[in-house]
């Protein structure tokens, strides 16, 4: 395989393993275990003296193809597929901390991610400090000598704030901490956290990578040393492994990732521009617009906008619900990155467990909705929003 291949080619051909039958599409190895030619071969495999698979919880040929393809896209040395995006986040955080350690995390992260760092980790004696991630000064003030992990999303869920990944990575290196970046909103096409200095990247592959509403999946990507020395034992013994069938489904999805994300981004930009000019809309945040609050950072670390748009309606919750209920093409769902356009009201869904003050702190008002652009016709989507807004009381 040529190292000069560009992403679109790698996502079709990268990491492919073919059996003796020479199949065109990747094979699904639905097996729990593997057999050995003799006792000596089994012993050598378990000692790590020979390469090969041992048990599907540790890895399989289908999973290996997905991991390799994601490594090529991300520019990572190693990766491990997980059963879901949250399995990836939890494993990446918990595998490297112990009682007495400290985590610094951006407060603007997905609700379940906050649970891992803010609620779960402290149960085991790991302290956590949440910061407004937009300011590097906040990160610097929160760091302690025992800080081992720093965690962020950028752009954030659901308000699309952007964090200076390179700046936070530099601070992490000063104390020997590892920076984990959840890159799901940017997609691996528009942002490369490892190139910016991050140590670990996690994805919910359920989102854009599958992108067609079919299966759950996640992945953790890093350098070979960290995967083998910090992550592998945790992965083997706690069992967050991905199903080979899901790995195969994701391999099929990733082939069309550039095509889908390109159209989704065009649609998101068009809808964002339309909504920004509408009198019933109080605010639009989209990383592809010049009026984004962190446009300067976006220009440094992202090569494209996003497939997501954060919108605040002037009429609060009633207006947000009226908009969502009035849409015909865009469907109400808390998922994102799908080929179908989706919309959700974070205050009553993904971030409902936060207090009202915590939501306000994150910029989530009663009138906030999050739009995830699909691959439909751009004009149809804009017209759908126009019709729905006509039904929203002024």
Describe the structure concisely:
The chain is of the alpha/beta class and 394 residues long. The chain has 16 helices and twelve strands.
Give an account of the 3D structure.
By secondary structure, this protein is of the alpha/beta class. It folds into two domains: 7-255, Aspartate Aminotransferase, domain 2; 257-390, Aspartate Aminotransferase, domain 1. The protein is built from 16 helices and twelve strands. The chain has helices at 7-13, 39-47, 61-74, 85-94, 111-123, 136-142, 165-175, 187-190, 206-210, 224-238, 244-255, 257-276, 295-301, 316-326, 356-361, 378-390; strands at 78-82, 102-106, 127-131, 147-153, 178-182, 200-204, 218-222, 281-285, 308-313, 331-332, 342-344, 368-372. The protein has a seven-stranded mixed sheet, sandwiched between helices. The mean pLDDT is 95.
């Amino acid at each position: 395989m040529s190292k000069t291949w560009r992403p679109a080619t790698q996502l079709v051909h990268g990491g492919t393993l073919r059996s003796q039958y020479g199949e065109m599409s990747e094979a699904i190895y639905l097996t729990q275990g593997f057999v050995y030619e003799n006792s000596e071969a089994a012993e050598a495999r378990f000692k790590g003296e020979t390469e090969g698979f041992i048990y599907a919880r540790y890895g399989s040929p289908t999973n290996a193809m997905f991991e390799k393809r994601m490594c090529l896209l991300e520019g990572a040395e190693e990766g491990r597929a997980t059963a879901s995006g949250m399995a990836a986040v939890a494993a990446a955080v918990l595998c490297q901390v112990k009682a007495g350690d400290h985590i610094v995390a951006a407060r603007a992260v997905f609700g379940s991610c906050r649970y891992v760092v803010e609620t779960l980790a402290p149960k085991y004696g790991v302290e956590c400090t949440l910061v407004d991630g937009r300011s590097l000064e906040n990160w610097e003030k929160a760091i302690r000598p025992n800080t081992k992990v720093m965690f962020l999303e950028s752009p954030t869920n659901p308000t699309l704030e952007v964090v200076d990944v390179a700046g936070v990575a530099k601070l992490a290196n000063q104390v020997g901490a590892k920076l984990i970046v959840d890159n799901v909103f940017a997609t691996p096409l528009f942002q490369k956290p490892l190139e910016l200095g991050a140590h670990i990247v996690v994805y919910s592959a359920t989102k854009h990578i599958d992108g067609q509403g079919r299966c759950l999946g996640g992945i953790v990507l890093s350098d070979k040393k960290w995967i083998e020395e910090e992550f592998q034992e945790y992965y083997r013994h706690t069992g967050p492994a991905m199903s080979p069938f899901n790995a195969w489904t994701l391999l099929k999805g990733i082939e069309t990732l550039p095509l889908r994300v390109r159209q989704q981004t065009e649609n998101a930009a068009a809808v964002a521009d339309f909504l920004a000019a509408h009198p019933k809309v109080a605010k639009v945040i989209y990383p592809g617009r010049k009026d984004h609050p962190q446009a300067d950072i976006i220009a440094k670390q992202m090569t494209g906008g996003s497939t997501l748009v954060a919108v605040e309606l002037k009429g609060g919750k009633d207006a947000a619900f009226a908009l969502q209920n009035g849409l015909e093409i865009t469907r109400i769902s808390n998922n994102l990155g799908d080929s179908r356009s989706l919309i959700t009201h974070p205050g009553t869904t993904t971030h409902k467990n936060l207090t009202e003050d915590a939501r306000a702190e994150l910029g989530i008002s009663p009138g906030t909705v999050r739009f995830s652009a699909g691959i439909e016709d751009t004009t149809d989507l804009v017209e759908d929003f126009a019709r729905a807004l006509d039904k929203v009381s002024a």
